[in-house]
Design a protein that fits this description.
The complex is a heterodimer of chains A (about 110) and B (about 240). With about 110 residues, chain A is mainly alpha-helical. Chain A is about 85% helix and about 0% strand. Chain B is built from ten helices and seven strands. In chain B, the strands form two sheets. Chain B has a five-stranded mixed β-sheet. In chain B, strand 3 and strand 4 form a beta hairpin. Chain B is elongated. Classes of the chains: A mainly alpha (about 110), B alpha+beta (about 240). The interface between A and B is medium-sized, with 14 and 20 residues.
Chain lengths: ~110, ~240
C-alpha cells in the first residue's frame, strides 16, 4: 500500500480513537446514571425513542468503531498471521462496512 | 562453583542451527563481555567467530545477546550482565547468523538505504558552509538521534521486526528522522514517502524496547513518532 494510503489509515485510526475515547466516556457515564433506578428496555427506549441527539451520538460512535476496528485488525492480521495483499484489504473494508451496517441498524431501532 | 571462575555459554553454529557450548573463564576486575569472548577464542577455542573493531563503544560491531538481552559487549561489564557468575552469549536476534556470534548485517543496512538514510544536498547548494543554528528546533531534533552507532541492538529487540521482517526498524527510521530535520537536505518528501509506506514508521507500536536498550540512550521511538507526524502533515498538505 502506498505511503499516502498508509498515512491516511494511520490518521483515520488516531482520529477515530479520539472520538471513541469521548464516546465511551459518555456511554459509561450514561450507563452509571441510568441504572440508578433500575435498567429496563422500556427505560432505554423511552430515553432514545425519537431523540435525534442520542441517535446522532450513537451513529457517530458506530462510525468511529467501524473505522477503528478494521484498521487495528488489519495490523494484527499482518503481524500475527502474516496475511497481506488485496484480500486482506478487502476483508478489512468488508468488516468495517458490516460493523457500520449492523451498528447503524441498531441505532435506527433505538430511534424509531 | 569455583571462586574466581565465570561459567560462560557461547552459542556455536551457523544459519542451519547450533547450540550453546560451555567454557570456564577466569574472572578479573573490570572485565567486559567482549573480553570474555576474546579470552575463549584465544585460550580455549580458536574456531570461535565473533565481530568487533574499536572496543570503545564507537563502531557498533560487537553487539550480542547477553543473558537474553542485546548489549554492546565492549562496554558491558561482566558484573552488570552476569547472573550468579554465569553468562550466556548468543548472536543478535532478528538477524541471520553467519557463524557463532557473528550476524549478517546486510538486511539491517539495506533498510537504511530503503529508508533513504543518506544525506542528499539540496539542488543548487552553494560552495559556502550552511549556517545551521544549534538551538533551532529542527537541529535539536536531529541532534537527539544523530549519535547512533548502527549496532543493531534496537533492531534485535524490536517486536515489530520479529513479527514483520519487512519492517524498516528503529535504527533506519531514526536515521531518516535526523535527515528529515536536516535543513540542508533536499529529499525530505521522497524520504517521507520511503518511510511512510508499507512496513514503515506507521507499523511501529511504540513499545519503546529500542529506547530501553539503546546503548547510546537514544530514543528511536520518539524519532519514529516524529516521522509519523511529519508524514501525516505532508499527506494533509498533499505532499506525500
Amino acid at each position: 500500500m502506498s505511503a499516502r494510503a498508509e498515512t491516511g489509515l494511520w490518521l483515520a485510526q488516531r482520529l477515530s480513537a479520539a472520538v471513541l475515547a469521548l464516546c465511551v466516556l459518555v456511554h459509561l457515564v450514561t450507563i452509571v446514571l441510568a441504572v440508578q433506578g433500575g435498567l429496563t428496555a422500556v427505560e432505554i427506549l423511552g430515553r432514545t425513542h425519537g431523540n435525534a441527539a442520542w441517535a446522532a451520538f450513537y451513529a457517530t460512535f458506530v462510525l468511529a468503531a467501524a473505522i477503528h476496528a478494521p484498521i487495528g485488525l488489519r495490523a494484527v492480521a499482518r503481524e500475527v498471521l502474516g496475511w497481506r495483499g488485496p484480500a486482506l484489504e478487502a476483508a478489512a473494508a468488508a468488516l468495517g462496512v458490516a460493523l457500520a451496517a449492523m451498528g447503524w441498524r441498531a441505532v435506527a431501532g433505538l430511534f424509531a | 562453583m569455583v571462586p574466581g571462575t565465570l561459567y560462560v555459554a557461547l552459542w556455536r553454529g551457523d544459519a542451519a542451527g547450533g547450540a550453546f557450548r560451555r567454557y570456564r573463564v577466569p574472572a578479573s576486575p573490570r572485565q567486559t563481555v567482549l573480553d570474555i569472548v576474546t579470552w575463549v577464542q584465544r585460550h580455549e577455542d580458536s574456531g570461535l567467530s565473533y565481530r568487533f573493531a574499536c572496543r570503545v563503544g564507537m563502531c557498533g560491531t560487537c553487539a550480542m545477546t547477553v543473558n537474553g538481552r542485546p548489549r554492546w559487549t565492549c562496554r558491558t561489564l561482566v558484573g552488570a550482565a552476569a547472573r550468579d557468575g554465569k553468562l550466556e552469549v548468543a548472536p543478535l536476534a532478528n538477524l541471520p547468523v553467519v557463524k557463532d556470534l557473528a550476524c549478517d548485517m546486510t538486511e539491517f543496512f539495506e533498510k537504511w538505504r530503503r529508508a533513504e538514510g543518506r544525506f542528499q544536498p539540496q539542488p543548487g547548494a552553494g560552495p559556502d558552509f550552511a549556517v545551521v543554528p544549534p538551538a533551532g528546533a529542527a537541529r535539536q531534533a536531529a541532534d537527539a538521534g544523530i549519535e547512533c552507532i548502527g549496532c543493531a541492538v534496537c533492531y534485535a529487540v524490536c517486536d515489530v521486526v520479529a513479527w514483520n521482517p519487512d519492517y524498516l526498524g528503529p535504527a533506519a527510521l531514526n536515521r531518516a528522522w535526523t535527515l528529515v530535520n536536516d535543513v540542508r537536505d533536499g529529499t525530505r518528501q521522497s524520504r517521507l514517502r520511503a518511510v511512510a509506506g508499507d512496513a514503515g514508521c506507521h507499523a511501529c507500536h511504540s513499545h519503546q524496547s529500542c529506547r530501553q536498550h539503546c546503548p547510546k540512550h537514544l530514543n528511536p521511538t520518539a524519532s519514529i513518532a516524529g516521522l509519523k507526524r511529519a508524514a501525516a502533515a505532508a499527506a494533509l498538505r498533499g505532499g506525500l
